[in-house]
Amino acid sequence: MGAENKIEILKKHWGHNSFRPFQEDIIDAVLEKKDVLAVLPTGGGKSICFQVPAMMTEGICIVITPLIALMKDQVENLRKRKIPSAAIFSGMNTREIDITLDNCIYGDLKFLYISPERINTILFQERLSRMNVGLIAVDEAHCISQWGHDFRPAYLEIGMIRDLNPDVNIIALTATAIKSVREEIVEKLRQVDPAIFIGSFLRPNLSYSVRKVEDIELKLIEILNNVSGSTIIYTRTRKETKEVSRLLQENKISSTEYHAGLSPYERSDRQDKWIKGKVRAIAATNAFGMGIDKPDVRLVVHMGIVSNMESYYQEAGRAGRDGN
């Protein structure tokens, strides 16, 4: 499979004429049936790294990813590109799950998005054994280390899918992973001699600043009045998301809030309004943003100190994905 095939697929479905740094090398490694660990900066085009080779590989690509919002977002984007895709997530009834899994076996689905917890179910394992799986992708793979030990233990058991599909290569992708986290990803996914790619984390289009201020709310309004465009404001608590959103509305800035305490419908609805530009700003806890494909974010504000530098890098990096 030569470079022409890759470029044709990229042009046909994504409208790009060339790959970004590292993308082509990663795709080649996947097509050579190697296990791959790719650490690319936020906005570095990680999805292309498994979606393009999956389109060139016979069978379905199983994508394991942590958040329902992320699944829906990616499936919607693939369908817009006329690529048959589906997701299984909490809230679906047994019949809906049944039909989706049957479509993976007998239909033309190219991508199936699932959560790590799904792998452990008998229904999924039984159907998986009858699927023609061409590639397994683990998105946001740093969650294996970040969440697996307490928040979502199922992350530590993703490697089970390797036992069920020993001949299928696995690509793990993340925007942030220090050496110890990379080693844990490889170990837990049972990757064999993986090709490891680490992209540059320099984002020349972004500028970073830290402000010490007397009145944080006044400063926030001043910043929003000076910097136009779509905005994410990160707060430390759910209560603060409501307070910040109310503050913005009082200052004639359209906004909504987002946190894990909202119902799946509310989260999806609010995210959708922000993505489509119906509201300018979204005040959120760190439950928001992973995998969200919105290229035109112009401002990311943290109202308090972030728990670690990796989280800050990833959250701040949601700005300027279009290069502006």
Question: In words, what does this structure look like?
Answer:
There is one protein chain. The chain is α/β, with parallel strands linked by helices. The chain is built from 13 helices and eleven strands. It has helices spanning 3-14, 23-31, 46-55, 68-80, 94-106, 122-128, 143-146, 160-164, 179-188, 216-226, 238-250, 264-275, 309-316, and strands spanning 36-39, 60-64, 85-87, 111-114, 133-138, 170-174, 195-198, 230-234, 255-258, 281-284, 297-302. A seven-stranded parallel sheet has the order 3-4-2-5-6-1-7, with helices on both faces. The protein is globular, with a radius of gyration of 20 Å. The two termini are 34 Å apart.
Features:
single chain; alpha/beta; 7-stranded parallel β-sheet; 4-stranded parallel β-sheet; 15% strand
| Secondary structure tally: strands | 11
Q: Return residue spans where pLDDT drops below 50 for at least 5 consecutive residues.
A: none
Q: Average pLDDT, to the nearest integer?
A: 90
> H/E series, N to C?
HHEHEHEHEHEHHEHEHEHEHEEH
Query: How many helices does DSSP assign?
Result: 13
Which word captures the global form?
A: globular
Could you tell me the strand content as a percent range?
15-25%
The neighbouring-strand order within the major sheet is 3-4-2-5-6-1-7
Distance between the termini: 34 Å
Mind describing the biggest β-sheet? Answer: 7 strands, parallel
Proportion of helical residues: 25-40%
Structural class: alpha/beta
Q: What Rg, in angstroms, do the CA atoms define?
A: 20 Å
